[in-house]
Amino acid sequence: MKKVDIYTDGACSGNPGAGGWGVILMFNGHVKEISGYVAETTNNRMELFSVISGLKCLKEKCDVTVYSDSAYVVNAVNNGWLKNWERNGWKNADKQDVKNRELWVDLLLTAEKHNVSFVKVKGHSDNIYNNRCDELARAAIANKRGLSL
After folding, report:
1. Residue 54: left if φ>0, alpha if ψ -120 to 50, beta else—which one?
2. Which one of 19, 20, 36, 47 is the catalytic residue?
């Protein structure tokens, strides 16, 4: 099975405000960059969009490692919150509706096609791929262009 690394990042100018996301996909020495823009959104939505967008680029079942600086995304998956929300009718621990439910559902449906693991990286640090994703996301906002979901 193909092994793919996906680096992701989301950004927002204001929160809510104009948003962007950036993704780097790496497979067997090949690198692909994609990004997108959303006029009115939140940072958390852009973090989710970036992961979903990266996974949707894959054309066959892969072993995927997603690297993200978003504790929101990584902790929801790795700490079991996402499965608990789904099991509890999309209610969080406080019995409130889970925010961004439609994106979480899209992430689940997209990820189930692959063997996906999530790794938390430190944002705005020395990870060149995370920094590049941040540049892609911010450029998408500045230029109001890019792919969109």
Report:
1. alpha
2. 47
The model's pTM: 0.94
Catalytic residue (choose from 20, 106, 134, 146) = 134
**Contacts of 74-81 spanning 24+ positions with Cβ under 8 A:** 74/118, 74/119, 74/120, 75/120, 76/104, 77/118, 78/118, 78/120
Is 124 an active-site residue? yes
> Does residue 147 register a pLDDT over 80?
no
Q: Are strands 17-27 and 2-14 parallel, antiparallel or unpaired?
A: antiparallel
Extract the tokens encoding 125.
């640090």
Active site residue 134: yes
106 tagged catalytic: no
pLDDT of residue 125: 83
The pair of structure tokens assigned to 69 is: 């600086």
Q: How far is CA 79 from CA 32, 73, 82, 110, 125, in A?
A: 29, 10, 8, 19, 24
Strand arrangement, sheet containing 115-120: 30-41, 17-27, 2-14, 62-68, 115-120
Structure tokens at 143: 């230029």
Instruction: Answer for the pair 137, 35: CB distance below 8 angstroms, yes or no.
Output: yes
